[in-house]
């Protein structure tokens, strides 16, 4: 799916930095039709999106849609990973990993917010945990805040390169959705 195919009012949600493209799987293409059928909760729980990460170079980001939510995917630079790893979790406003792939109250280390062997990739639900705005930081040239992650322009929340809240009114880290690598360059969200 190229950016040209997107409706103007969805562009903010489907920003593709650089020349990257988002490839979505059949499950996500079915989503509009499933929605029209007013599915029950069990149908919604099965929905998933497959994203091809191969065009996303180091330092670039893409945004996919999953269950009507923007999913921020960033291929972090070594410096961004190091910055995320070198944080004392005890100093964070929210020290919880907020990772749907983990069982419970895991500490919010960068390792607990990424997948082992793919630590350069951060995958987040791109909805500010304050009042639900879409933070900036996906597009080239976006304000990213002083921690180099994401910045919510609504009330000034600042997230780091692991998507953890560092300043501002947002109470929780950006959530990591359920996802897994299906190959070295593809993830399945949901
Ligand atoms: S909605 Fe993001 S800071 Fe208020």
From TrEMBL:
According to its UniProt entry, this protein's organism is Hyphomicrobium facile
Q: What chemistry does it catalyse, as a reaction equation? A: a quinol + 2 Fe(III)-[cytochrome c](out) = a quinone + 2 Fe(II)-[cytochrome c](out) + 2 H(+)(out)
Q: Which family does it belong to?
A: Belongs to the Rieske iron-sulfur protein family.
**Protein name in UniProt:** Ubiquinol-cytochrome c reductase iron-sulfur subunit
**Organism lineage:** Bacteria, Pseudomonadati, Pseudomonadota, Alphaproteobacteria, Hyphomicrobiales
Cofactor names: [2Fe-2S] cluster
- What compartments host this protein? Cell membrane
Additional notes on this entry: The Rieske protein is a high potential 2Fe-2S protein.
Q: What class of enzyme is it?
A: translocase
Q: What is its EC number?
A: 7.1.1.8
Domain of life the protein comes from:
Bacteria
Q: What does this protein do?
A: Component of the ubiquinol-cytochrome c reductase complex (complex III or cytochrome b-c1 complex), which is a respiratory chain that generates an electrochemical potential coupled to ATP synthesis.
**Keywords in UniProt for this one?**
2Fe-2S, Cell membrane, Disulfide bond, Electron transport, Iron, Iron-sulfur, Membrane, Metal-binding, Translocase, Transmembrane, Transmembrane helix, Transport
């Amino acid at each position: 799916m190229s950016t040209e195919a997107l409706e103007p009012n969805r562009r903010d949600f489907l920003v593709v930095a650089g020349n990257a493209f988002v490839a979505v799987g059949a499950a996500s293409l079915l989503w509009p039709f499933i929605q029209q059928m007013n599915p029950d909760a069990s149908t919604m729980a099965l929905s998933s999106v497959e994203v091809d990460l191969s065009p996303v170079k180091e330092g670039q980001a893409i945004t996919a849609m999953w269950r009507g939510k923007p999913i921020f995917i960033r291929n972090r630079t070594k410096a961004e990973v190091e910055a995320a790893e070198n944080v004392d979790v005890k100093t964070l406003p929210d020290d919880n990993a907020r990772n749907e792939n983990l069982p419970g109250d895991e500490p919010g280390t960068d390792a607990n917010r990424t997948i082992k062997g793919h630590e350069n990739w951060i995958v987040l639900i791109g909805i500010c945990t304050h009042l639900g705005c879409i933070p900036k930081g996906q597009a080239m040239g976006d304000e990213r805040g002083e921690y180099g992650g994401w910045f919510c322009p609504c009330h000034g929340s600042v997230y780091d390169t692991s998507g953890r809240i560092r300043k501002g009114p947002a109470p929780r880290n950006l959530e990591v959705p359920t996802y897994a690598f299906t190959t070295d360059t593809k993830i399945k969200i949901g």
